[in-house]
Amino acid sequence: MTLRVYRVQADGGVTTVRERREIEPAEGPAWSMAYPPCSCPRCGEREGAR
User: Fold this and answer.
1) Which residues pair with 11 in a beta bridge?
2) What residues are paired with 16 via a beta bridge?
3) What is the tens place of the pLDDT at every residue in 19-47?
């Protein structure tokens, strides 16, 4: 994967902040389309009432 950080001015000019670098993607959790369960107090109360 290649990463480059740059800034775009209002007139369309581009300034490089950091040059291009090759990086390895981090190993992370598997992607899923499911939402995690809600952990707010309101939903927790409903879970206990079931």
Assistant:
1) none
2) 6
3) 999 988 888 777 788 888 888 888 876 65
> Token digits for 4?
């480059």
- For the chain, the farthest-separated pair of C-alpha atoms sits apart, in whole angstroms, at 59
Amino acid at 43: C
Supply the pLDDT for residue 46: 62
List C-alpha distances in Å: 49 to 4, 12, 18, 43, 44: 51, 57, 54, 10, 9
Q: Judge whether 45 and 38 are in contact, CB under 8 Å.
A: no
Distances (CA, A) of 16 to 2, 10, 22: 14, 15, 16
The SS3 of residue 36 is: coil
**HSE of 14, CA atoms in CB hemisphere, 13 A:** 6
Is 0.70 topped by the overall pTM? no
